[in-house]
Each structure stands twice: as structure tokens, then as C-alpha cells.
Input
Amino acid sequence: MEKIFLDILRPDDWHVHLREGEMLSSVLPFTYENFGSALIMPNLDTPITNISLAETYYNEICKRIPRGAEFTPNMTLYLTNHLSKDEIKKVSNHEYIKAIKMYPKGATTNSDAGISDFKDFYHLFEVMEEKGVILSIHGEVTDEKIDVFERESVFIEKVLKKIIKQFPNLKIVLEHITSADAVKFINEESMVAATITIHHLMVNRNIMLSKGIRPDFYCAPILKTEYDRLALVQAATSGNCKFFLGTDSAPHVEGKKIASCGCAGIFSSPLAIPLLIQLFEEHSSLEKIEPFVSRNGRAFYGLRQHKDRVRYVKRPKSIEVIKDIKSSHGKITVFNPYNEVYWEKED
Ligand SMILES: [Zn+2]
Output
């Protein structure tokens, strides 16, 4: 039988949570084995709020990457009012700090240091706009009066449009978009791109809630409707350079996921690329996967494209895939909504 394979430029992950300490050691191999680079989020127990903390964290990560692995960690700073204009100027030509991340207060894990009034940061946005530093945004309001399924759309209307109006040349990545509204918005704005996760491309809120609750699909921003999911699939498979992969892979041990107040976050790094290939294949868009996972993000971040290619092979029968990984605090479930997986990386 003819061998079916797909060669693509080495993929990148433009949004990942690698955590720290033992958890970092447990999850990092799945990122450096599958991606050429990753943008690493700064929401640690002590958030990465300045260059010095980012450099220490970078060194902690690099220590764990084996010689010969072709992987570059790109770092982010957590936006707080302790960040100075000078520090932002340094970020603009820093070797590996590539974005400043804005979390609305309380939007996700360890985001209590996030911001509540965006206008407090306008003096910093001004420098970022001038120096071409990218603002990466968790795009949800956190007002408890706003329904959890509406928080992204309200953020776009009430906050993001104001920021863009004030800073039309500020480069922005709206992270992990979840809705048809967000896709439409990105298509209309010239300086704004978006990351999309694999879970928002593959599952919807019915799958999470309608036949018993599925804590392993619980994430922030929360899954939306099938209509929204299809709009995201359309965006990802369009080849449009404004959409690229950010897995938002965010590991939590089982005991924290399956609890009376379970944590938001999905661990998706291990199977991200094979599952995506399968999804793109189902949508007859295999030729569009390379822009989405390899090219568009690098172009937006102004980085040279990778040169080397990675081969994925389609097996004639479904393959045995990793279900979870172990850590000393318990197991971490690997995201996989498919019953059968056919694609894998060729060694
Ligand atoms: Zn995230």
C-alpha cells in the first residue's frame, strides 16, 4: 500500500504554559519534541513581570532541553504597573523576549496580578507601539455580572476596540480566540492577529456539558457553540496569515481538574500536531496546515521561517496514543477528543 505522508516546516506553538519545577520537567519534552519554538506564558506562582525574572525562567527551561533538540523558548512579560518604559525599550531588541502579556485580573490561573483598568497602561502601550513590541492579550472581561460565554465578545467591544482606536499601530495578538465574533473582528482589523487552540477547533460546549460533565474539556476562555467552533475551523483552514496555532496547553493534575471546583486548562502538547492534521484532513485542507502551524506566527512575530521539515505519516490502522503523563502529584490527561488517531510523527 502506498505510504501517505505530510512534510511541513517545523511547527511552532505561539501560546503555552510550561509551569515550573517538577511540572516543567514533566511537560517540557512534549513541547521541544513537537515544536521548533514556543511562546511561553508568564503566569507562574510568582508572575514573570520583568526582564530579569524572564531570563531566570528562560535559563530554567534551557537547562532541561537536551543538547541537539532544535527548540527555542520565546518568553513573555506579564504586564503590571511595575513595568517601566525603559524595560519595554529593552524588550524591543531582546534576543528572546517576544511579547508582553496582558491578563484581565482573575481571568485565568495565577492572574491575580492582572489589570483591572486598561487606561493605566496607555503610557506603556505608547512605547510598545513606537518600538514594535507585541501586546499579547487574554481577551475576556472578568466582571462577574457578564455571562461567562459572553466575556470575549464584551472584551472586544468594550476594551479592545478602545485600545486599537488609541494605538492604531500597536501589534496585538488576541490569544486563544473562541467565537465567530472574534474571527470576524480579526478579519476586519489590520494590526491584530489571533492564536487558536486545538481544543477550540475540536470540541464545543455541548460536548463538554450535555452528556455528563467533561472536566478535561474545561478551559478558559470556555468552549463556545458549534457555530463558533466552525467559524474557528474556517479561519484556521483558510490559510489567512492572521491566524496561527497557540495550543494554550495548560497542565493540571487530575486531582485539580476533577474536583468540586476544578481548574480550567487543557494539556494538549503531546498530540497537538497529529490531531490537527487529522482535523485539517477532514476539512480537505491539508495544504493549509503549514501556514497555520509553521508560517503565519513567525511572519507576524517578524522571525525568519524555519528551514527544516518534519514528516508526519498516516497509518492504515488507528494507532495507540498517549493518554496521560505521570507527575508526583498525580496524572495529567492528554487532550484527545478522537476515538481513532491515524497520524504520527515519523522518527
Ligand atoms: Zn493561556
